[in-house]
Amino acid sequence: MKKKSKKKLYSLFWVITFMGFALGLGWHLSNRPTLRPEAKSLESPESGGVVALSEEKEPSPEENRALPAISAEELAFRERATEVLKDFPRKEILKERGRDLHQPPKELGEAAQELGVVEDLLEKNPSLLREGLRFYRKCALSEPLLTSLRALCLHNLKERAKKSGVEKNIRWSDFPENLHRIADKL
Amino acid sequence: MKNTLIVLMLSILSLVGCQKNNSRGFSTKIGVILDGTVPEDQRDLIDQDLMTLSQVNLSNINSNDLQVLGIGSFSGTDLVNWLTTRVNFIVGEDFDYEEQASIVGSLNYRPQVFQSSFLSDELLAANSLTTIMINIGSALYRYGKNNSRILTLDVGGQTLYVKSPRIGVVQIGEGLFSTWSVRGTSKDTRANSLIRLSVFFHEGRHSDGNGENVTFPHALCPDWHDYGGNYSCDNHSNGPYVVDSIMLRNLQRACVGCSNSEIQTFKAFQADAESRLLPNSVYSDIRPEQIP
Lengths: 186, 292
Fold this sequence. Notes:
The complex is a heterodimer of chains A (186) and B (292). Chain A contains 8 helices and no strands. In chain A, helix 4 packs parallel to helix 6 and helix 7 packs across helix 8. By secondary structure, chain B is α/β, with parallel strands linked by helices. Chain B has one domain. Chain B is 40% helix and 15% strand. Chain B has 10 helices and 13 strands. In chain B, the strands form 4 sheets. Chain B has a 5-stranded mixed β-sheet. A 4-stranded antiparallel β-sheet of chain B has the order 7-6-9-10. In chain B, strands 3-4 form a two-stranded antiparallel ribbon. Chains A and B meet through helix 5, helix 7 and helix 8 of A and helix 6 and helix 10 of B.
C-alpha cells in the first residue's frame, strides 16, 4: 500500500512537471516576435514603405538577447553602435572654456576613427547592412550631436544606401536641408 | 686666457642682448623658408608635406573647385605655385612676434620696437592654446592698415616690409601635428601629411583680398550655429573654410591605400569646414591690396 502511494506520487510529480514545461513552451512561442518592422521594409521595397530604422524605442541588452530575429553579429554590432552613439561628441562641448573654435574639436577626430571602424565592419560583413543604415540614420537625426558629425553620418548613409540599392526606401526628407548640403559636399 | 674670457663674456652678452631673429632659416625643397624657431622634427615633417604636395596630380576636378582656387589643374606645380604665392615663411611656436616686428613711422621712417599687442583677441586666444597655424603676416598687415602704420618683421634672417597681406608668414605649433591628425597614427603618415596641407591652404587664403574683405577675416557665427557667438564662420563662398573643404575633398583622393578611419577623418574635418559656411555667403575678390 505504501509502495503504491509512493508510485502515485511519483507519477503525479512527473505529470505536473510535464504540464508546466508544455505551458511554458506554449507561452514562449506565442510571445516570440517575428521579423522586425525595419527588416520587412528593407527586404520588400515594393511594399512602398520607407525604411523605419530608428523610430522604435532602443531595446535594452536583455531585450536584444531575447530577439531571435537578428543574428549574433547584428546583435554585437547593435550593442557596439549604441555605445558609440552614446559617446559621440555633442554640441555642448563647444561651449567649454579654453577651446580653439577655429579648428574642429579633437572629439570629432575621435568620432571619425570610430566611424572608420564601423565602415570596416560593414565592408567585411554585408549582412550588417540593415544595422549599419539604422546606426547612420540615428546618428544623423540626433540633434544634440555636432552638426559636422551628423552630416558625415548622413553622407555615409547615402553612400551605403546607394551601393546597396536601397536608397529609395529611405525617407530623405527627415533630414534637415543644411545637413544634406554638407553631406553632399563630402 | 684673460682675453679669451673677456671675448667669451662679450659674446654671451651680445647674444643675450640680441633680440632680433638673425638665423637664416631652412629652405624647403619648394622654396618656403622655415625659421630657426621651427623645431627640427616639425621642420622635417613640413618639408615632407610640401614635397608630397609637389607630387600631387589629380584629374577630374570639379570646375568650381578650380575656380575658387584660381588654378588650371590640381597638379603639384599649380598647387605649389598657389601656396608659395601666399606662404613664404613658416615660424615656430616660440617665434615672438612682438620682438621681431617693428613699426616704421610713415613720416620719418625711424624704426621703433613694436610693443603693443596687434593680433586680435580671437587670434591671441587661439595662440594661448595649442597653436595649429596662424597667418601672422596677414594679421600684421591688418594691424598696420587699421593703425596707419607700416611694419617690418624679422624672419628667417630677413627683414620684411609688411606692405601687403601676401607677406606670407605663418606660425605653426604642436597642434598641427597632434590635434589635426588621424587618431592613433604617427605624424608622418601620408594621410596626416595631406590633412596638414589643407591647413596651409586655409591660412593661404588669409593672404588674399582687398578692401573690406582683405585677409578674408572670419565672420561671427549666428546663435543657432554650433559655433554661435564666435568668429569661426565664413560669409565668403570662396573663403578659408571653403578652401579647406576643397583641399580636404580632393587630397583625400590622393590618399591611396588609406584606411577607413583616415578617410573618415578627412571627411569629418571637411564637414566641420563646410558647416562654417553661412547661408547667403558671397563670392569675394581675392586680389590682394598693396601699399605702394
